[in-house]
Every structure is written in structure tokens, then in C-alpha cells.
Specification:
By secondary structure, the protein is of the alpha+beta class. The protein has helices at 37-41, 58-61, 66-77, 87-93, 109-118, 168-173, 196-201, 211-217, 221-232, 241-249, 259-271, 275-284, 288-291, 299-308, 316-321, 327-337, 341-353, 364-371, 377-390, 394-400, 412-417, 424-439, 446-451, 453-460, and strands spanning 3-8, 16-21, 27-30, 33-36, 51-54, 82-85, 102-105, 122-124, 133-138, 142-148, 150-155, 160-164, 183-185, 189-191. Keywords: Magnesium, Metal-binding, Nucleotide-binding, Nucleotidyltransferase, RNA-binding, Transferase, tRNA processing.
Length: 480
Amino acid sequence: MVKLLFQVVSKSVPACRFIFDSSAAWCIRRKHQFIPAKYLKSQAEARKEPAIMKLDTPEFHSIFTPELEKLVSIFNKHSYEIRIAGGAVRDLLMGKAPHDLDFATVATPDEMKSMFTTENIRMINNRGEKHGTITARINDKANFEVTTLRIDISTDGRHAEVQFTTDWKLDANRRDLTINAMFLGLDGTVYDYFYGYEDLQKRRVRFVGDAVQRIQEDYLRMLRYFRFYGRIAEHPDAHDGPTLEAMRQNASGLDRISGERIWAELSKILEGNFGGELMAKMLSLGMGPHMGFPKDSNVDEFMRIWNQSKNIKLKPPSLIAALVSSIDEVTELYGRLKFSALERDLCYFIVEHRGAPEAVNRLRPYQLLELHSRFKPNVAHDFVIELLKYKNDLELLKEFEPWRCPKFPVNGIILRENGVPGGPSMGMAMSKLKAYWADHDFKATAEDIIKQIPRILDEMGVDPSAEPQKKPSPKKSRKS
């Protein structure tokens, strides 16, 4: 395919270049920039006047720290417009104080670097520069990420080749959801090109423009749709039919997305509102196998666990354990999603012990699980708590939660001194002696336990007198 290289130079926009796909046939010059015609044609329907309201709320005023005011004054001094972008605007419109502030500007990265250098502002973390992001550290106290307005010239479903622009609407058009495509001026003016404010009022999650196009630009946007649905929507299943169909048709695109990115979104979905219903919906759209889940995932069991645990909040690894039927399937899922080792071990633990047999003393099997665990005591305790939540045994959970396993009164040295051989025999004897200790309500003394050693060794068929002696380590020869 033929590609053309354009060089654009103007007083307001420094020299920049971008690759232009000849299949677009022609391009349009706009504000000293060449924009591919096919990109302009693909824009979503926009309102004529994007400035829709003036925000004047306590949450809005609370963001103005001395550091932010200094950042804004620098941009104003150098005549570059800067606005708050994305999620912070959405949160402020919902009456929430945003956790993070992202900024967009007409200034290019080179212009920002020159400006910050002139103003003696330190810049850190230059990894985002190729995508137009400069991070300024103000007063050696706060970091601000400021990104140049841009459009995605080409995408492969994961990454985009970008061109900088000075057109706010073009930047909004490339974003995923209408509720994330709004800007907020530092004077409180809300700029909404694609009716995101109306969608927010109706608690509706909608892609900007054509859903298929937005999804194919970055397939992770399907998961972002469900994550924001859980944050915005008031009902678990009020999705738009064509949007669901667009995701069904593009489910296999998740094969291109790394497991780490998928799990980062999926775990937030499961922790949010309607997490179970949204997970079931994704599976019904055929997304499961492309995220690493078995083709025959046990959705009924998953929904049973989800519905019974709504008031006790299971962790995401515990929830996905309901979808798999074996340890091997957990291993395959871990290989795809790359969640943490602790999350993997919790999933293993749930799958291995969710069918644990009951006993006369109902608490004892769970005490023994913690006692014999290879994990640190606090981790093992948390795992057992999660298992009891999974089994929805709230009465037993209340009894187990405050319990702490006492320290076992003997160790390997004491056992060796009392005739227990080393190696596998030591581990087996230790396990049996711990079981004896537990059967006596963890109150047996070291003396009581030591008295059990001959009986334990006899049951094991181990003759302590037959323990092989360790061979002495060979002496190192001295160099002459």
C-alpha cells in the first residue's frame, strides 16, 4: 500500500509530519494542518455550540491548589489554551471530587518543553512524550500530565499513530465514550461536543460515533464500556442492542490485548456495581475464551456465587474461581491474564478447598487449613476468610475471623533431638503432631507433643535408629 509523507509548517504549529494512507484519496487542510478526509468523514454527530454550561460547585473549586493555579498561569502567560479532560470532567458533573486531573492543550510537546524550561519548571517521566504528554512538577510538590490535542491517524487495535492538532472537537472525536469526551475550562465552562452530558444525566454509556469503529481502534474499549457501565448505569441490563452486537462481532479482537490490560479492567468490573451481571453479559457475547476463560465456563455457578455474596464482597480472584472447574484451568487462566502471584494462589486455594468436607467441629477443618498452609499466617488467614465467604457460611465466618492460630510449641530442632529423622519424614511427623495439637484445642504443651513422637514414628513405619548419617562435606584442597 502506497503511503505519502506530508510536512506541515506554520507559525502556530511547529514542523510535524504524519503518514497518510493513500486509500483516503485526498486530505483537507484545516488550520495549517492536513487532516485525512476519511477521518473528517468518520466524525460523530456533534452539537454546534459545545460550551453548554458553567460549572460553579464546591467540588470544582476544591481542585484549585496553588500548584494548579501556577500551572494555569504559565499556560495563560504563553497564550496556550489548557482544559481539564476526560474522567475528571465526568466526575465533577456527577458531584464527585476527582481523584486525578488530566489536562489537554493546543501546545505541542516541544512548545510545552520550551515554555516550562523558560519558567524553570522541572519536567519528569518523558515516556509519554511521543503520544504528546509532558509531565510538569510544580513547586516540587505536585505532578501534572498535560497532553497535546491529537487524532489517531492509524490504529491496529492496540496502538495508534497520532498527529497533533489544535482542534478540540477532533480530539474529542477520537475518545472512547461520550461521557469521557468532555472538556472543562479552568473558568468552569463545560465543553461537550457529543452529548456526553445528556448521556450522563440518563445514566447511559455510549461510544462516540460508530461503536464498531471505536472498538476496532482499541479492542480494550469493550471492557472499558462495561467498567463505566457499572459506574454510571442504574440498571444491570439496559444496554443498547447495536452496541452489544458490535462487541459480539469484535470479541476476538481481545486476542490482541495483553492479559495485564484485560485483568486491570476486568478486576475493576468485578469490584463495581453489577459486576456479576456484566461478567455474564461479556461471556454471552463470546468474549470469555479471548480473555482466557474456558469455553464451557460455569456461568450458573458464577451467578450463584455472585448473588449470594453481594453483601460480603468477594475479591475478583474468588469470583472468577467459580467459572473454572479445576486447578489446571486456573493455571491456564493465570497464563493468559497474568494476575499477581497472590491472586493466583487465592484462586488455587478456593478451587482446591471449596468442597472441603464438614466435621463434627465445623470450625476445625478451617483452622487446620490455616495451620498446615504453606503461606504466611496472615495470608493463610485471609484466604480461609475468603473461602468461607465463597461458601456463604456467615455464621462460621463470624466465628473464624477473630481467631488467630497460636504458635506451635515445638520446632524441627526439638523433633530431631527427640529422634525424628530429617527429610520427608520430618515434614510428615510435623504435620501429624500439629493435627494432634489441633485436636486438643491447640492447648497441648511441648512436653505433651514430644510424648507423641514414638507413636507417630511407629504409625509412619519409621525407625529413628535407621536414619542415614550425613556425609561430611569434602575438604577443599589448599592451593600450593
